[in-house]
Specification:
Length: about 120
């Protein structure tokens, strides 16, 4: 599937720096939204590797592994994720705080989008 912005036949939109910055801000720079959604959609805790793989599969976003690990570490430290250990493997699940923060984040994005569209 992946996140795609419709482009004209000449690919001009791909060369507009403002649009590229927007795409980056709404994907890699807000990766916590995608991490949270992947964990919400999976009933079992996931390894960081699997979270990264599912983000790529579901959303077409390929962030560097270190970026995903850093985001997961920060989210865990903030209480948005909980760490589950099994043997030598570490798994993550979204916490109630993480779910609530995700909902608030989506609400904020919807508000901004509605304002930009001229809707109330």
């Amino acid at each position: 599937m992946g996140i795609n912005i419709r482009e004209d036949s000449g690919g001009i939109l791909d060369r507009v720096k403002a649009l590229e910055r927007l795409k980056r801000k709404l994907t890699v720079e807000n990766l916590w939204l995608y991490v949270t959604k992947v964990l919400i959609d999976n009933p079992n805790p996931l390894r960081a590797y699997d979270i990264r793989r599912l983000i790529k599969e579901k959303y077409g976003i390929s962030p560097p592994a270190i970026t995903v690990y850093t985001v997961i570490y920060r989210m865990t430290r903030e209480g948005l994720l909980t760490r589950v250990s099994s043997g030598d493997q570490t798994f993550y699940r979204v916490s109630e705080k993480g779910i609530e923060t995700f909902k608030l984040g989506l609400g904020f994005i919807e508000q901004v989008l509605n304002l930009l569209k001229g809707e109330s």
